[in-house]
Model the fold of this input.
Amino acid sequence: MRDFNEITATEGVLKSFDSIENKRVKVLMGSIVKHLHEVVKETEPTFEEWLKAIEFLTRTGQKCDERRQEFILFSDVLGISMLIDTINNRKNNNETESTVLGPFHAPAPDIRFGDNIAHHVKGEKCLVKGKVSDINGKVIPDAIVDVWQSGPDGLYDVQKENNVVDLRGKMKTNNNGEYFFKTVKPQFYPVPTDGPVGEILNLMGRHPFRPAHIHFMIKAEGYVDLTTHVFIDGDPYLDSDTVFAVKESLIRKLNDAIDLDDNTQCKELTFDIILEKKI
Amino acid sequence: MRDFNEITATEGVLKSFDSIENKRVKVLMGSIVKHLHEVVKETEPTFEEWLKAIEFLTRTGQKCDERRQEFILFSDVLGISMLIDTINNRKNNNETESTVLGPFHAPAPDIRFGDNIAHHVKGEKCLVKGKVSDINGKVIPDAIVDVWQSGPDGLYDVQKENNVVDLRGKMKTNNNGEYFFKTVKPQFYPVPTDGPVGEILNLMGRHPFRPAHIHFMIKAEGYVDLTTHVFIDGDPYLDSDTVFAVKESLIRKLNDAIDLDDNTQCKELTFDIILEKKI
Done:
């Protein structure tokens, strides 16, 4: 095209996509360009503002390494990750809702019914249990329940330098569809704020906290995989999770309990899970 | 917010911007989030597509260094840089139109009327001259004319390893508002294709070429700075410049001419420039 101007701009760029063979790429690139042009037309950025955006994106890419994904964090704090999760996990019945995977999933050691997953942290003991079933209440034995969480210091094992696996476990449900493990009470924590996304949160006057939660990934033959969290009732950040991942249906109370193995007082949380049949 | 869903998502994230003090940041972030959410809702990306986008952005940031700005290149090939340029340089009268700065501007040596700027390349000799005036034809002496271009191999000096300044010059217009320099005929060239943006162009079935041009940056006291190119008539890529920077009003013919200093045959290009008064 010649004579690119505010009226012809978007159409001109979209025309340059005419020879895209992959229809899906065409749809995606078309939507991205259309909306990025809309942002420019709506806000009319100065050259300096545009350059700041370029620099922000560059620094965000350069903050990423094997242990850190700053662009996923950016997607998270803008609610984009959660929107992608929601669109890809529409509920049909009473199945347990999904929420974001997050950046801290890693291979977990196999554990048995009742094992403890918190070895290298100090915290309030907490028993976690539940039942996996289908939407009609039929229990699902041998479902794989993979759990991970941060410690009372707000850090996941992979965020620490020592490379010791902790606060993770992978177990199978028993013949009654039940799972049970011991851990420490989860605590709210901040997402990493020492990078460009931290600067943006600061610029926006937003706090970086996520309410206390335990991650769950559940797989069972014949059922749709489920990635979700259980949140703790009463957490101060349930209404302002910085990554927008809270769903009312995923909040559970921490009750007082007794650990029967050693007769000590502790907390207890019950989180039953309902899976959707694969079609 | 709790219960983030497809209906409440965008409003929920925008609500988290409530405490942004800087009004401009609020407008910019609001528009960006609204439109990125629209892209997700329109195209419903799979988790894998979202991850590919994350990886693309990460690699684009990591391709940048002191000599290379891959995010500017991405902005260029989507027409965003040109849209920003257009919005910030609306024409009021008959002043010369602007076009993109590009990533290759660098300090240039001072030259005198008639000097040659092409020292370390071989190519067809070309005389470039013109007059700088205001919108009423009043000539502007002492305007600073800063020019730069790629060589016949399609490369700017800063893209080469040897660090030798070439094909750049900075001069002042004479008492008649005229400038004049010698160089080699510019040639069309590809933008860098060995990075993520090259992959995207390839995926979109688009060529990476820019039509032949010489960059100009003109400053004169009392006038608005002008950044533009002159393009060469007949170039095969005038209608498909990969960064959308061509304007009909900036295309000039290369005519046959004689270099009077040594009586050799060469090419000649005339590019008169009209500046806008600063208000």
Observations:
- Helices of chain B lie at 9-15, 23-43, 47-62, 70-77, 80-88, 196-203.
- The mean pLDDT of chain B is 95.
- Chain B touches chain A through 75 residues (CB under 8 Å).
